[in-house]
Amino acid sequence: MTRPFRFGVVAPLRTDVPTWRDRVRRIADSGYSTLLVPDFPQMQPAPGPMLATVAALTDLRVGTWVYASPLRPAWLTAWEAHSLSLLTEGRFEMGIGTGRPGIEDELRDKGMPEVPPPHKRLAQIRETVTALRELDGPDLHTPVAMAVYGPRAQALAAEVADTVTFVLGDQPRGEVTRLASDFRAVADAELALAVPVVGDTVAPHMAPPNTDTAALRAADAMTVLPEDPAAAAEEIQRRREEIGFSYFIFGADVAERFAPVVAELAGR
Asked: Which residues contact 46 (CB under 8 A, 6 or more apart)?
């Protein structure tokens, strides 16, 4: 099944609050479906209050991109996710993963007595989704987006996720195509593609600031799109046709530049 296009924006708070609110409103006016915030404790406000603010300001869907499972007990993440889903009247999407590279050091810095290994972090995701479904009950279904790469994570995502995004770097097109094809053979989840690099612009909190944008282009990596909106729109359509991606996520710094792309493709 070919899913219609939708587009999201990762919009961390990196300015004063009024400037960020103005950006949120402009994103909403540009036709994007979803505003997302990262899970970087103490670098910005917590995801819950930020997303509740966005939902009150706009009609956008809102979501985490993504909760890091080891940062909170599973019940606490599930409670916050259910609360956001309830208060936004079904506009919240819970993105969750096992944590970005280097999160082990962050967990130690925050005083965690034991840093859980990857398989335990996956178990935490399962516990979180199970608790969320119990809190939602029969009348509410909070969509779950999982960030995955390895076979264990993919197997869990095939079981519990509504949307799946692959954790990508410089993998070439052919490798990503095989990855997506193998996953689609066992699950019918929406495939999302986070694109942290547009031209030479690197989105904060989506990729390291020292990302080699030329190397990504040379590798034909899926984490980069051309800066020209017309060329980007053509490439986005190719990626849905050849690989199955229908949900594309950009950084806030290119959201207005790519508004024509969203206007052309959203919902098609």
From this structure: none
Compute the 3-state secondary structure of the chain and give helix, strand, coil in percent, each to the nearest 5: 45, 20, 35
Question: Quick check: 80 pLDDT over 80?
Answer: yes
Residue 219 CB neighbours (<10 A): 17
Which alpha helices (DSSP H) does the chain contain, by range? 17-29, 47-57, 74-87, 103-109, 118-136, 151-160, 173-184, 213-218, 229-242, 259-265
CATH number 3.20.20.30 is the correct assignment for the domain at 6-265: yes
Distance separating alpha carbons of residues 158 and 178, to the nearest angstrom: 16
The two structure tokens encoding residue 180: 């997506």
Residue identified by tokens 């991109």 is 65
- Whole-model pTM above 0.90? yes
Q: pLDDT (tens digit, 9 = 90+) per residue, 16-67?
A: 999 999 999 999 999 999 999 999 876 789 999 999 999 999 999 999 999 9
Cβ-contact 66, 39 below 8 angstroms: yes
Structure tokens at 208: 């390291």
Average pLDDT over residues 235-246: 98
Tokens at residue 51, please? 């997303």
